[in-house]
Every structure is written in structure tokens, then in C-alpha cells.
Amino acid sequence: MSLQAGFDAAKEGRYQEAIPILEEYCRNCAEQGSAEYCTAQMWLVRGYKATGEIGKALIICQRLMLSEHQKVSDWAGKMYQKLNESPETETETAEPVATKKAVGAAGVKLAMAGVGGNLGLASAVTMSLMSGMVLVLALGIVLIADSENPILGLGIAIAITVLFNAAAFFLSPFLMDLTQNWLYKTRWVELAEIENLSPETIRVIRRVCQQKKIKTPRLGIIEDQNPTAFTYGSLPNSAR
Fold this sequence. Notes:
By secondary structure, this protein is mainly alpha-helical.
């Protein structure tokens, strides 16, 4: 059946008939930012709300809140608030949400217990790099103090310092890559994998990169349940 048939059924309140049509269209739609796709998603929210499938409606609202279309994201935000305030949501989701919070808190505690040793190693690596910088500074002072020509010693010290810091600046992303892989077993992923899991995430990344005129950063995942996101890199186009 056509998408218009799904719209007509939804407008007439025949949600049991409309939902399968709209779901099939959304699954097969290649342009998930199109007006038709957003409209289908909005009618699905109404359909799920009418049939008591509040959880599904909330998930779609969360996605639509990230839409590039301001009217769609505003509508989704208002609908998300209404769904959370409805009595059905309280009875259906109060216990699962509490359970998820408890399980999540326990998971984070267990994960952080194993991360402590890794943090210690990471701190040791950082301190070693800082010690290297201090060593270069000390070498510069020695070259100046013991030199018969302090100006020449100063020039050599400055040159060594500049070379060391330039090397640290440009090599630091690769050193971080090695450290992350060694300590946290970073799993580098392709954009296609992220897009399958979360299409809205890729849309946000591409939009920001296009606005800032930078290449798409390299993406990695650390499987430790720690809810933290971070980035590093010497230059915008070498970001991880």
C-alpha cells in the first residue's frame, strides 16, 4: 500500500491499519531527513500513543528532537513532554526506568573498579612525557651555564626545545592512539556501522563537519560503560 494510504488511515484514526504501512515506509526510506519521512514518524508517534505503545513513541520523539527541521524538533520536544506526563507512561515505565538506573549504576561501579589500574598507567605515561620536557629544559640550562658562549648555548637550547615540542605536538595523536589501544582496547569503527546503530548521530557529525569545513573525525568506542565522550588531535583534520 502507498504512503498516502497510511496517512489517510492515520488521519481517520485507523491506527492499527496505518502503523504497519508507516513502519514499512520508514524502514525502507533512503532519505531519513525528508519531509515525508518526518511526517510518517510524527504519525507513528500519534499511532503508538493511541495504541498504548508509549515506549516506541518516546524513542521516535527522541530521534525527531535531533531533526534539522526546527518545526519537527519543536513538535517532538512538546510531544515527548506530554508522553512523559501521561498516566500511562507513569504506570508502564516507572518500574523499568528505576531498574535500568539501578543496573546502570551497578555497571558503572564495576567498570570503574577495573578502570583504576588503567588510569594509573595513563598517569604514569603522562608524567613520563612531562619529565621529558623538564629534562629538555634542564639540558638547555646546562648548555647556557657551561658554555663559553652563552648566546650560542641559548640558541641551541631554544632549538632543542622547539624541536622537542614540535615533535610532541605532531606525534601526540599517534602516541594517544597507541595508549588508548594499549590501556582501553579502543575499537575503531566506520561511519557505516555508526549509521546503522544511530542515523541521527551521523547526521549531526556530518552537519557539524560541513559547517566547520573539517573532515570527518576518526571514531572509536571504548567498551567500559563509562558515559564519557572526548576528542583529541593536533589539528582539526586529524581529530579522533
